[in-house]
Amino acid sequence: MSWYYTAIEIICWIYLFLMLRHGIYRGRYLLHMFQQNGYKLNEFSKWLLDHWNTILIPVPHLAMILVTITGYHYLEHVLTETAITVILIIFAMFWFGDISRYGHEKIKKPLVYTARMLRLILVFLFLSAWIPVSGSAYAFHSGILIPDIYILIFVWVFTDMILPYLLLLAAAIIYPAEKLIQYRFKVQARNKLKSMPELKVVAITGSYGKTSTKFITQAILSERYRVCATPGSYNTPMGICKVINNDLQPTDQVLILEMGARYRGNIDELCRIATPDIAVITNVGVAHLESFGSVEAIAQTKGALVRHLKPGGFAVLNGDDPEVRKMNNRDDISVLFAGLSEEENHIFGKNISYDDQGCAFEMQVKDEVPAGGGTFVMMKEEEQIRMPLLGQHNVRNALLAASAGLIMKLRLPTIKVALRKVEPVEHRLELKKKDGIVVIDDAFNSNPVGARNAISVLSSFKAGRKFVITPGMIELGDRQVTENRDFGIWMARHRPDHVFLVGKQQTKPVYEGLREGGYDDGRITVVNSLFEANEKISEYLREGDVVLYENDLPDNYSE
To answer: Phi/psi at 41 (nearest 5 deg)?
Structure first.
């Protein structure tokens, strides 16, 4: 009968393989979500609570534990140990053989194995391994001829279930070391900047438009200077330190930093690393209202950039935004207002038009600006600007960037040349063409003003049918439902030919707004994911159509 016991052991090893496979995929998924939540314990904990019945306390795990306990107490005297083993492992294969929930074939932003992530994985693996390893050793040792199946199943299922808690523990364990590492990076970055006294630091913040303004500013200043700028959306302390420590060269003349904030004090922390000579503030909106609590708190946080500005420095402010205008509160700096209003701004744009090549507008510059201790004199001039970007907000971003260029003594004709060459920022009203279809990719936009602006841009296209794919907006706190409903009403007013809403629960307010605005229900399609939306829209499209992708939620917001 040795073959019989060998067969049972093989079945047990198959079970161990299945559970190990499931644990690896589940653990990697949790690590990915932890990274998506910015390595922040509070935000990851909130995400876990929001998914308590699928991730934190999964039903299959509880069911498997219940089946195991039932088998131990009630079936042991009725069925043979072999029969119980086969039954329990069949249940385990049924519940844990499928890892599609944790699969990565459709992940939008994959897990990045940074040094910090690798340190976390090492501790996480250690905490996750000792229960199943020691439990399995005991199960195989205690069984006379075959392993103790109850212990074997229980310890692996239990460990798999508590992986979120073990990850939280691992993150808490390495937290002091991470803070020390971050402190060293900050000191290194500050010391490097001190060694470059001639370097001009341009810092850009705002609720939205930071990245676009940064890249436009980089394009303009690069016409005359050697410029180092943070790539992509590098706007955190460690992202900025990485660029300063690794990318900034001794020959660089200008450093352009995007400064992001999700909580009060974030801008103060960033300015303690790099104090700006020129501060650019794009706007104050409701982005991250959930974490800030109020628009006033957002304005106070963004305004820290002006408060940290070096004496004699320059603040470039969006003069169209009342909250930003209030930041003109220092006597020892120069302040330039830029925007679309001629009355409110020193540098302004008008007569904006769009086509499938981008936009055109007229930029005008007034001749003098009140400055700390005197007047900052500019040459009064105007130019007809053409650039491959879409949207009123991008015109405003270009005006803010041009203001920084004028401060750095570039002439408007030079700025005009730079704007014509500027590259669209990926996923921010990025204009693309594929197989005769015009695509407006605004996937990284998640604020009410930008979303409405994108719809206005879409409606300005004269030819072709117009389609919208959107999951609505997030992180707007108490205003999220209202803002999404208003967005739906705004869309209804501009009458796209068809709207695809991604996520039934997430987009319910958008749907209600569309219907409230009189939009035809037959032209609304609700799908479960962006991938499904792309499959559905392919059935509608023909040459000449225009598709707007308005926002795309990160993986940790997927329904």
So the answer is: -60, -40
